[in-house]
Design a protein that fits this description.
By secondary structure, the chain is an alpha/beta fold. It has 13 helices and 15 strands. Helix 12 packs across helix 13. The model has no long low-confidence stretch (mean pLDDT 94). Bound molecules: 4'-deoxy-4'-aminopyridoxal-5'-phosphate.
């Protein structure tokens, strides 16, 4: 994420020479949006402007499977998956049927819905090794709650995070652009990613104040190559816990369900004390969760945590159906296969056109970038040429593959990417 005051795609000049992707309705919506929304506050994943002016359609009004329709009624093949959540494809029939059945009976009601207990039990069956779970609404809620629980458990204030890692939308979790009270960040150390020596050399006296290390499975800031946690780094995290008593939080909000079928910690060889989930957990419905082990149950019980909409029953039913379909259909394997075909096909096309395009990070949610393209100008052009031809992906953020990307969709995506790359070459 950029930390300077100039934000690519918002403040920068357009890198495209053709007409904007938005049609007249989309363009009118931008004018209306600018009147009622502070423009830069929502610059990140939710704004097509962050992709570059005119590079992507600004407003999407309908979605099904792996396809989306913009406000001007144009359909696209989509590789954003709602920035991750759509694991099984938009509006998966079984997930939507489960949600609808519950919606007909009630969603937000007094006290707890039984769906909440069903959901918690189902989630704990999904990844053995955790003993309790707390439902939340969003990834930011899961990481914020984890931060509170480790502080309560260890009676220590500080946390270790890694350089550019994004963990959510409050001051401590994000890299903020606006002025904030310095004290808000006083309790954080930001160390280098994949640097075991930085953890090993962390001074013992300072370590006594560290409640936890919080890490992502992948270092994946926008617009730069992604890098997975090395085995040596994971070992250093375990060593740090052993040496200092600090806990380990894995933020699996983005990678969850796409790196390993039972949580990214299993792909990494990491043994986290807390696991944060969001995004893909309910195939687009608003539910996240924190999973924890027995020794942290008392600390979790000491936290007062409530929020009006946590207890909505519909999203719990959607999450249960998502987990059922994901496991029954081995959606993980389908996603890997589709993603590897996509990567191979797009890389071959780039090679044919003499372009140095790179896929970094896992195939299922890679950062796809040109070499020697620091401002992502070439990436914007590629995303624009693809959108013109009916394929959407973000030039700076991860591409996401879902189980709805069948062979025909992947072949179509490769063919469009090929034509778009030819236009860029
Ligand atoms: N952690 C990571 C790694 C994320 O990618 C995100 C969202 N992009 C979050 C936390 C925050 O999740 P949410 O936007 O659902 O609050």
């Amino acid at each position: 994420m950029p930390t300077d005051s100039k934000l690519p795609g918002i403040d920068g000049a357009s890198n495209i020479s053709g007409p904007p992707i938005d049609g007249p309705i989309g363009q009118a919506l931008w004018a209306r949006a600018d009147a009622v929304l502070p423009g830069r506050a929502m610059f990140m994943t939710r704004s097509a402007r962050y992709a570059g002016p005119g590079v992507q359609p600004g407003f999407i009004d309908e979605a099904e499977g792996c396809r989306v329709r913009d406000a001007d009624s144009r359909w696209y093949l989509d590789l954003n998956c709602g920035n991750g959540p759509n694991l099984l494809g938009y509006r998966h029939p079984e997930v939507e049927a489960a949600a609808r059945r519950q919606a007909e009976r009630g969603d937000l009601m007094p006290y707890f819905p039984s769906a909440m207990v069903d959901f918690c039990e189902r989630l704990l069956r999904w990844s053995p090794g955790f003993d309790w779970t707390l439902p939340v609404k969003a990834g930011s809620d899961a990481t914020a709650l984890a931060m509170r629980i480790v502080r309560a458990a260890r009676n220590r204030d500080r946390l270790i995070l890694f350089r550019q890692a994004y963990h959510g939308n409050n001051a401590e979790q994000s890299l903020r652009h606006e002025r904030h009270p310095a004290a808000a960040l006083n309790n954080l150390y930001r160390l280098d990613w994949n640097d075991p020596a930085a953890l090993d050399a962390f001074p013992a006296e300072a370590a006594e104040q560290v409640a936890a290390i919080m890490l992502n499975p992948i270092d994946q800031p926008s617009g730069v190559p992604a890098s997975e946690a090395s085995a040596e780094f994971v070992q250093a995290v375990h060593r740090f816990r052993q040496r200092t008593g600090a806990l380990v939080i894995l933020d699996d909000v983005r990678s969850g369900f796409r790196l390993h079928p039972q949580g990214s910690h299993r792909a990494m060889g990491l043994d986290p004390d807390l696991l944060c989930l969001g995004k893909a957990l309910a195939n687009g419905h608003a539910v996240g969760a924190l999973l924890g082990k027995e020794p942290l149950r008392a600390a979790a019980s000491s936290i007062l945590y409530t929020s009006t909409y946590i207890y909505s029953a519909v999203c719990f039913r959607a999450a249960i159906a998502t987990l059922d379909v994901y496991e029954r259909d081995n959606a993980f394997a389908a996603i890997q296969r589709a993603a590897e075909r996509l990567r191979a096909g797009v890389l071959a096309a780039a090679g044919r056109h003499g372009l140095d395009l790179r896929f970094t990070g896992p195939a299922s949610h890679p950062n796809v970038l040109f070499a020697q393209d620091p401002g992502c100008a070439r990436g914007e052009r590629f995303a624009y040429e693809a959108a013109r031809r009916g394929l959407l992906f973000h030039p700076r953020l991860a591409w996401f593959v879902s189980a709805a990307h069948d062979d025909a969709a992947i072949d179509e995506a490769i063919a469009i990417a090929d034509a778009a790359l030819a236009a860029c070459a």
